[in-house]
Design a protein that fits this description.
The complex is a heterodimer of chains A (110) and B (114).
Chain A: E1 4-7, E2 10-13, E3 19-25, E4 32-37, E5 43-49, E6 55-58, E7 61-65, E8 71-76, E9 85-94, E10 97-100, E11 104-108
Chain B: E1 4-7, E2 10-13, E3 19-25, E4 31-37, E5 43-51, E6 54-57, E7 64-66, E8 76-78, E9 87-94, E10 104-105, E11 109-113
Parallel strand pairs in B: 2-11
Antiparallel strand pairs in B: 1-3, 3-8, 4-5, 4-9, 5-6, 7-8, 9-10, 9-11
């Protein structure tokens, strides 16, 4: 069946270093969404990408959607403590469902 | 103030007991969802409802039941048939259930087995 794989599972960085998470789908996606879940919190929508090759930026966050619309990435430049959390990608599985990646947990080293 | 509320925040279940988790939204959304999240894992769909009086099983519906008698409410019952219910339960909604749409989440309920 359709799968969405997300790597890495964890990434430890020093504050100020960059962070990247990658999302790969087994099927072509009409769109991909990214969410952030702070520790102890609930997922919050960040962005949706729709077009092949699309790149969107939100301050220090850069989101890309691959040309084949099967992969996506989120890159954070110069991480801050406020970036800590788990980042999820999700794509449509049917008209009424999303299929979720397992998430990448961003951990800032003390 | 629009949003999704879930209660309680923490819930304890004894062996053999059924418990019900509440989810209410005032966003006027047609579609509502229940997810289960285990530590270090993603979200797995339990049930979803596109419209009042209709709901569909997700990937892990066994041991759970739902109802959708009102647009605003989508309670989840964890039955005694669910042998490993300890998890974080998240309710979500969106306008009409399309896979193109953002999902809005409630704060979640943590269920623990005594």
């Amino acid at each position: 069946g359709q799968q969405v794989m997300q790597i890495p599972q964890y990434q430890h960085v020093q504050e100020g270093e960059d962070f990247t998470t990658y999302c790969n789908s087994s099927t072509t996606l009409s769109n991909i969404q990214w969410y952030k879940q702070r520790p102890g919190g609930h997922p919050v929508f960040l962005i949706q990408l729709v077009k092949s090759g699309e790149v969107k930026k939100q301050k220090r966050l850069t989101f890309q959607f691959g040309e084949a619309k099967k992969n996506s990435s989120l890159h954070i430049t110069a991480t801050q403590t406020t970036d800590v959390g788990t980042y999820f990608c999700a794509g449509p599985r049917s008209n009424y469902q999303l299929i979720w990646g397992a998430g990448t947990k961003l951990i800032i080293k003390p | 103030d629009g949003g999704i509320t879930q209660s309680p925040k923490y819930l304890f279940r004894k062996e053999g007991q059924n418990v019900t988790l509440s989810c209410e939204q005032n966003l006027n959304h047609d579609a509502m969802y229940w997810y289960r999240q285990d530590p270090g894992q993603g979200l797995r769909l339990i049930y979803y409802s596109q419209i009042v009086n209709d709901f569909q099983k997700g990937d892990i519906a066994e041991g759970y039941s739902v109802s959708r008698e009102k647009k605003e409410s989508f309670p989840l019952t964890v039955t005694s048939a669910q042998k490993n219910p300890t998890a974080f339960y998240l309710c979500a909604s969106n306008r009409n259930g399309g896979g193109q749409e953002t999902q809005y989440f409630g704060p979640g309920t943590r269920l623990l087995v005594l």
